[in-house]
Specification:
By secondary structure, the protein is of the alpha/beta class. The chain contains 15 helices and eleven strands. A six-stranded parallel beta sheet has the order 8-7-6-9-10-11, sandwiched between helices. The protein is elongated, with a radius of gyration of 25 Å.
Length: 369
Amino acid sequence: MGALGRARIDHVCLTRLRSKHAADDVFDERFAALAGILKRRKVSALVDFASFDGFASLLAASRTVPVQVYYSMGYHYMDGPGWDAFFCVGQAAETRRTYGGRSWRTVALSHQDPRAAADVKALELAGRQIRAGRFSEQTVVLGAIARPQKLDSDEFLAALSSLLKKNKNAVFLWFGKEELASVRQKMIALGISEQCRFEGYQSTTTYAQVLDIHLDPFPFPSGLSVLDTMCYGVPSVFMDTQGSMRTGVPAHIFPLLRRECGTAAQQETMRGIFADAAGGESLALLADSVDEYVALTQRLIDEPVFRRKAGRAGQRFMETFMLDPSVCYESFSRQILGTIAETHANTHANTHAKANAETLGETPGEEQP
């Protein structure tokens, strides 16, 4: 919970319910048991980490604790009575975000550094062996570490087709539990299937040693896996879309670069990371159009020095803003404590207003003549 949380939060209790596929009677029994535990322990606040709709709705309606919060990575939207606040993943420089017509409190994201994993040496070696054994030094390896469904985009595949047809020395690697037939059929129709290789479900640490350039799909961006490749200095090209600026990596970079949030010091730090010290040009690879997306990628292919600079900028961003777990802990503690204080204040104000109305013989909220 961080220093703030340890100072002001007595206990944290975590529980995981696997009731989504259980019979109704089992679900009811387990929910009742959880509600009983919450009441007996006099829990001050409950945070639902994006559970499935039926459970979340029942939890909200039951009002088992004084303060109830719904927490989502940003991919799910929950509405309805019973929730006192909504949390979603954000960046360290912001505290609130609006989407779905609702104000969400943001909790800073912290990413686990893949380079510190226990088995990292073996995973890195496997990647270097794949690179040396399957690809020549002249081959430029492009890839998108994302669910295959996110690649099923005509615009993205058209951009990929343009790049692969112009660069016969390039290949594109894609990943997932199984190859998506619709994506492969589109690759065949575009005439690029031979250059597109499905690798299955693989370690991002391993393939960070294989890829030269990561292509973030659009309109739906990669998830957090791309952060692993950025830790290893693999440059990623992004598209400026509503999805990428809400749940993708660009949401953690470009609002600060544009001075839309954060302190002056945070803004200058981010701008310093993505400014080329030699030429002063931007190393932040965010495209406004398909043509610009293709042009940025082509430059990375043509200019290995620029590619290394852009990759190093992404790596510095990760090391500066994304790898310190205490930032996440403190952010969450501030938000939950703020929610508790705000909810208690609102409850007190409503109780006071109701008491005054009853004293005057009025019905709260009813206009008097």
